[in-house]
Amino acid sequence: MIGIGMEGSANKVGIGIMLHPEDGSEPKVLANVRHTYNAPPGEGFLPKDTARHHRAWVVKLVKDALKEAKVTVDDVDCICFTQGPGMGAPLQSVAIAARMMSLLWGKKLVGVNHCVGHIEMGRLITGASNPVVLYVSGGNTQVIAYSSQRYRIFGETLDIAVGNCLDRFARTLHIPNDPFPGYNIEQLAKQGKRLVDLPYVVKGMDCSFSGILAASDGLAATYGLGGSEQAKLDAEKSALNTEESQDLDAKPTRADLCFSLQETVFSMLVEITERAMAHVGSKEVLIVGGVGCNERLQEMMGIMARDRGGSVFATDERFCIDNGIMIAQAGMLAHKMGLNTPLKDTICTQRFRTDEVWVKWRDD
């Protein structure tokens, strides 16, 4: 069985092609192509601009994926697409392309929950059997565990997602969005030496990131670290003309702020993940989502897991960052169970909860 996966919930449009062998052996990735819309430094990506980008690239990427996979339309069994959650206009752009392909080629459609796609791809690549899942991305932050054919949410963000927190602080510092802001924050954080005190907000199994973002933005403004390069140079020149300039060494740098932000938010995530592990009696942690690529988060989670006699499973940017193969994988698992999506039900929703999905393909 061969399936095409189409992802476009945020600023990346991805097309993936997966093969599920008839003999039941491990699925194979045949193609994984994507293209990213990057806004200028200091700006976020708007839904209308992102949707325009997806419409311009989706057909080319489908052709590229078919060529890379060395398959034809006749070989394809189903077309899987992200139905939600995500940004409305980009979601709709890719969904329309999926409907068009379904009607032209006479193939079944499968609407996929974006979060479940991340989880199923992570389970496949890492081999984690039944882990506690930390799902961290630009739009979502959830601690998840499987039970009774549902992915149950044990804890989540109460406001913005951790990836959104990092992205928006990158915007404050005018850190480039290419390849993606979280990666550039991570590289700058590696140069940080000073841990600045920032709000730490954990409420039971839930987290809040809006306060720590506001505090970080405030510190950047106080020390003249935000804005364009010219603005930072002007602020530094002004500081040299004050008495406070004698104590420049005591002031945090941009790297210090990135380091402090990462250390604080990741500590919060490790805490709620450990609490979920204790609750369900699991020794496995699977980190999925774009922020899951962060090496420091993986390191901190690994320290916690080892102290509990457990282990951490994570993937690289090919599978962590939004992609088409994760949609193909989750969609094909549903397709095998007969869980196809009629054309009239292929509407997209920006709010599609992880625990709404009937995980019929799992019975463990």
From TrEMBL:
Cofactor: a divalent metal cation
EC number annotated for this UniProt entry: 2.3.1.234
Compartments in which it is found: Cytoplasm; Nucleus
CDD domains for the chain: ASKHA_NBD_OSGEP_like_euk
Pfam family name, one: TsaD
Iron found in the keyword field: no
Catalytic activity: L-threonylcarbamoyladenylate + adenosine(37) in tRNA = N(6)-L-threonylcarbamoyladenosine(37) in tRNA + AMP + H(+)
Major location category of this protein: cytoplasm
A single Gene Ontology CC term: EKC/KEOPS complex
Cofactor note: Binds 1 divalent metal cation per subunit.
Gene Ontology BP, a term: tRNA threonylcarbamoyladenosine modification
Domain of life: Eukaryota
SUPFAM superfamilies on file: Actin-like ATPase domain
Residues annotated as binding a divalent metal cation: H114, H118, Y135, D322
Entry's Gene Ontology molecular function annotations: metal ion binding; tRNA N(6)-L-threonylcarbamoyladenine synthase activity
Keywords for this protein: Activator, Acyltransferase, Cytoplasm, Metal-binding, Nucleus, Transferase, tRNA processing
Location of the Gcp-like domain: 29-328
UniProt-listed InterPro entries: ATPase_NBD, Gcp-like_dom, KAE1/TsaD, Kae1_archaea_euk
Family label: Belongs to the KAE1 / TsaD family.
Name of the protein this chain belongs to: N(6)-L-threonylcarbamoyladenine synthase
Organism lineage string: Eukaryota, Fungi, Dikarya, Ascomycota, Pezizomycotina
